[in-house]
Amino acid sequence: MDDQRQLRLRSALERCVQGESSYFAEIVREYQAMVFSIALHYLADPSLAEDLAQEVFLELYQRIKGIQSADHLTYWLRRVTVNRCIDYGRRKKRRSETPLEDSPEPAAAHNPADELLIGRLMESLETLEEKQRMMVILRYQEDLGPAEIASLMKIPVNTVKSTLHRTLEELRKKLTRKLREVRYALF
């Protein structure tokens, strides 16, 4: 974050803590993309991610007096978002499914990424246990380091590293197996 933006955010946070709630919108604008991104990558449903983000910001509004700094605010938002996502995953084991007739027609891809591979990867990610999936999302979608993930999830750094390593191996095996199945089905 640049210095001026950091100062503006610090000022908005201080005023919110003092009771001037009109500055809360600036805090939401600054952090809504981060919260939504974590929720969207975990839940894979934009409307659920929006709902979860709103819940997180409502909780922040209610607890704003306990926030000590901009760094604490970032940590708090990530931590609450991670916990809410994991809780949601535990409550809702079955992922939402859209009937084929309700699905939009696929658009032409703008990027040269292999859509089949991405689809299989997303399917494989959804089979992971909640905490494993959240670690993968935080590491590779949100670009957080193992220490940050450990802090957010309240587990040792080495546990994060070993879990990520085992999870990636598991994903590789699942993806290789799925791609072999597709190749045999096509040829």
Descriptive overview:
- The chain is mainly alpha-helical and 187 residues long.
- Helices cover 73% and strands 0% of the residues.
- It has 2 domains: 1-92, RNA polymerase sigma factor, region 2, helix turn helix motif (Rna Polymerase Sigma Factor, Chain: A, Orthogonal Bundle); 113-187, Orthogonal Bundle (Arc Repressor Mutant, subunit A), CATH 1.10.10.10.
- It has 8 helices and no strands.
- Helix 2 (24-43) crosses helix 6 and helix 5 crosses helix 8.
- The longest helix has 30 residues, at 157-186.
What are the salient characteristics of this protein?
187 residues; mainly alpha; Rna Polymerase Sigma Factor, Chain: A; Arc Repressor Mutant, subunit A; 8 helices; 73% helix; 0% strand; elongated
Structural topology:
Elements: H1 3-17, H2 24-43, H3 46-63, H4 70-91, H5 115-126, H6 130-141, H7 146-153, H8 157-186
Radius of gyration: 19 Å
Q: Quick one: overall form?
A: elongated
Largest sheet: none
Number of domains: 2
User: What is the average per-residue confidence, as pLDDT, rounded to a whole number?
Assistant: 83
Short description:
With 187 residues, this protein is mostly helical.
